[in-house]
Design goal:
Blueprint (H helix, E strand, L loop, with lengths): L2 H9 L17 E5 L2 E4 L5 E6 L2 E5 L7 H11 L4 E5 L5 H4 L3 H10 L5 E5 L1 H11 L1 H12 L15 E3 L2 E4 L2 E6 L6 E6 L4 E3 L21 H12 L5 E2 L7 E2 L1 H27 L4 H7 L19 H13 L14 H12 L2 H13 L3 H14 L4 H17 L3 H18 L5
Parallel strand pairs: 4-5, 5-6, 6-7, 11-12
Antiparallel strand pairs: 1-2, 2-3, 3-4, 8-9, 9-10, 10-11, 12-13
């Protein structure tokens, strides 16, 4: 396989390779330039040979560590002495174990793991929220038996602003996370953006995860663009070859984010409610055809909500939501006004048939909240949220809606569909 030709197909939109769909998985470590290999997975790894030693930028997910080790070893026998985490998400930090074990068995020091200083705090938080992270990632990725890891390989070396770690020049950026490291191989002009470029619109609004930083993300993208890299190897998705393409992808992604931030802040400063801002803010139409800005993972509506949360807190401007009635109490009151929970279910079905999926979702949820044991209403809720999932482009929205549909199918029993 010619990786440059493959990357050209992805750039032109003729092949998909992103955080949502990994097109090169299973091909092992592929040569990019002399001494630099690229290994695709859910969490890519970049391998660098340097003076008889090897270094890794990112180490993949917990389910793939043994295969990563095997495929790296098929590419090079040089001892791995340096590892860099682009950030602390588990699909980037979970493959060090076999290399540690290999070093210990050979009687040499374990690889030195370098990362931003905030990575350790992330691992600590993960340990405090194991149950929550298991639930939300089951829902996001539709993996019913996923268990969040309870052990982490903490970094040996941490930094705040910049660091040289083996062959990698690193600088800190904020974006999807607060602990991101951007890597650069100056001799080969190779940029390693981590998850700051993922071949879909930036993962900057995930509704189930902690705060993201869209303005700072754009700043980091523009800083990367000044490096004049010839090749970009993201931690999800295909490589980008050619200085012009690298610069275009970085600058246009920055412009996309900046537009959402500027529009949201303008309306926020005018006193608009969150509801109005979510309905009105849109990304630049001129960038709609870019294969690296498709809303197939996260989406602009979620990013707008995250911008509000960052700058304005959790109060959305609706005084009824400041200290609201419990969901079930409100649902029961509305059901009473409608003539019973069954009427709400019928209204949900009518809205679904009319194509108003958002309204159908509200009505179906209220119906079940008002009558949680009613199997017929759960069947309606399952139908509504299955339709919502089918209509969504983003993995995150599909995950939440599919999870809701599955909940009601189980509650409805054998006839739940």
């Amino acid at each position: 396989m010619d990786i440059v030709e493959y990357a050209d197909l992805v750039w032109s939109g003729k092949a998909d390779d992103s955080i949502v769909q990994g097109g090169l998985a299973g091909h092992g470590v592929v040569d990019v330039v002399d001494g630099v290999g690229f290994r695709s997975g859910f969490g890519n790894t970049v391998v660098v040979r340097d003076a008889g030693r090897a270094a890794l930028f990112d180490t993949g997910n917990p389910f793939d560590a043994a295969r990563l080790h095997r495929e790296v070893r098929e590419w090079t026998a040089d001892p791995v002495t340096e590892v860099v985490y682009s950030h602390g998400h588990i699909d980037h930090v979970s493959g060090v174990g076999p290399f540690d074990a290999e070093a210990e068995a050979a009687g040499r020091p374990r690889p030195v793991v370098s990362a931003h200083e905030a990575v350790a705090a992330r691992f600590d938080r993960y340990l405090m929220t194991l149950g929550y992270n298991s639930v939300i990632n089951r829902r996001q990725f539709q993996i019913d038996d996923l268990s969040w890891p309870s052990e982490y390989r903490y970094p040996d070396v941490v930094y705040r602003d910049t660091l040289t770690a083996g062959p990698f020049e690193l600088f800190h950026g904020k974006g999807e996370t607060d602990d991101a490291s951007v890597g650069f191989l100056p001799g080969q002009r190779v940029l390693l953006p981590g998850d700051l470029f993922i071949w879909v619109s930036p993962n900057c609004g995930n509704p189930q995860k902690v705060q993201r930083y869209p303005r700072e993300w754009a700043i980091a993208l523009r800083r990367m663009a000044t490096l004049n890299a010839e090749i970009m190897l993201p931690s999800h998705g295909a490589p980008v070859f050619g200085a012009d393409r690298v610069e275009q992808a970085l600058i246009e992604t920055a412009e996309w984010l900046e537009s959402l931030v500027e529009q949201t802040l303008a309306m926020l400063n005018d006193g608009a409610r969150l509801d109005a801002i979510v309905r009105e803010v849109r990304p630049p139409a001129r960038l709609a055809d870019r294969p690296y800005l498709r809303p197939h993972y996260d989406e602009p509506e979620f990013i707008v909500r995250n911008i509000w949360r960052l700058y304005a807190g959790w109060y959305d401007g609706n005084p009824a939501n400041l200290k609201p009635a419990p969901d079930a109490v409100l649902a029961a009151a509305v059901a009473g006004l409608a003539g019973g929970a069954a009427r709400l279910g019928e209204a949900a079905q009518r809205a679904l048939e009319a194509g108003d999926l958002r309204l159908a979702g509200h009505l179906a949820e209220m119906a079940v909240q008002a009558a949680p044991e009613d199997a017929d209403l759960h069947r309606i809720r399952a139908e509504v949220f299955a339709a919502r999932a089918a209509a969504e482009a983003s993995l995150m929205a599909r995950g939440v809606f599919s999870w809701a549909a599955a909940e009601s199918r189980r509650a409805a029993g054998p006839q739940g569909g």
